[in-house]
Amino acid sequence: MSNNAAIVDISQTANKFQSSIVLQADNKYIDVKSILGLFTTLVGGHSYELHVHGGDAAEAKAALAAVFEKHNLKVNVVE
Predict the structure, then answer these.
(1) Rounded alpha-carbon distances, angstroms, from residue 78 to 4, 35, 36, 53, 65
(2) pLDDT of the chain along its 79 residues, tens only?
(3) What is this structure's pTM?
(4) Potential cystine with 21: which of 32, 57, 61, 74 (Cβ 3.0-4.6 Å)?
(5) Coiled coil located at which positions (predicted)?
């Protein structure tokens, strides 16, 4: 699995939505729509929390959870 593929996939998916989508990794918060932010943060072995707020949050959460799972990345989608 290529981390680069995961990063591009996650960012492209996030950018389809209007909602604010933030990934928490340890004490860092990253805008998932920023590929650069993901590159510096998305490394294997971590577990992440995904915070989604906005009008299309439900759809965004479902889509991003699927992308994380596809790339074997652990994510907890915060309700």
Answers:
(1) 24, 21, 23, 10, 11
(2) 468 899 999 999 999 999 999 999 888 899 999 988 888 777 655 678 999 999 999 999 999 999 999 998 889 999 8
(3) 0.86
(4) 32
(5) none
